Amino acid sequence: MFSVKELVESSTMKSVPSNYICHKTPEDFMLNYETENIPTIDFLQLTSSNPNERSNAIQQLGDACRDWGFFMLINHDVPETLREKMVRVGQSFFDLSKEEKMEFAGEKILDPIRYGTSFNLMVDTALFWRDYLKCLVHPHLNAPSKPPGLRETFEEYSRKGKKVVEELLKGISLSLGLEENYIHKRMNVELGSQVLVINCYPPCPNPELVMGLPAHTDHGLLTLLQQNHLGGLQIQHNGKWIPINPLPKSFLINTGDHMEFLWQILTNGKYKSVIHRAVVNTKGTRISIGTAHGPNLDTIVGPAPELVGDDNPALYRAITYRDYILLQQNNELDKKTCLERIRI
Prior knowledge:
It is a single chain. The protein is about 30% helix and about 20% strand. By secondary structure, it is of the alpha+beta class. The strands form 3 sheets. Strands 1-2-10-7-12-5-4-3 form an 8-stranded mixed β-sheet. Strand 8 (about 235) and strand 9 form a beta hairpin. GO terms for molecular function: L-ascorbic acid binding; metal ion binding; oxidoreductase activity.
């Protein structure tokens, strides 16, 4: 494995190597910079003891999931000092020597700790301008033993992030007229998986030729995302790409495939997983931290039998969350959601 960071820091690179050049269509360059309508959810209001405040926040949350599959979360419970520390330890990991990082390379897709580059070197037709560290941090913490302080920081960050997600799932359940713990129970969130991914996108001399990550959706229910001072996330809305400039101290939240999987029965497909991508820049290294929250790996996810009938047939076949992840990770990121691969 030859990482992008090593490539950029080598003295031999004068231009983008041909194996990193991605084929792009005119649609890939259709941008919409009118970002003022991106939903913002106030976590304090969502968890407020004031019934009116909470009711309004739940309504806004439901609208965001239905209309966007994406929102910014402000006034959450994760301290900014901890978020800043996560960025620092993430950068410190990628600054380790090649030999130290390769100790955590892993061999299989579901290895609990995996350092790598691109997406899946076995299937990528073009390599992506990205190195990553991926760790399964719940139900059991898995994290590299170096650099110092990384493991402890991961533990605190993932624990606080999980509490935020649990409150969001309560609000989403209520927005659908369900009991607030419906998703928590149905998807076995207590023993569910929590995958923390730190992405490293080094500067690129010709960013228009490459992709950090191409258009894709996330597995799981919700993903919490934060980044350093450099932007790069774009979401697809109404056929155009919207560059996201997050509010200070906010989390970016996107709904995953298993939110859509669940909702296809409950809402006739109204709540969608959002298509998004990561672009790179010439200025500096972008660090992003995504935490995907999903069911337990062995949970069979499928339409609830009591909600399926002649007038409301199942759209997807039941599949374990483990097999769903393997299906996604073993296929190219080709603008298709993995849900399309299990449609009946």
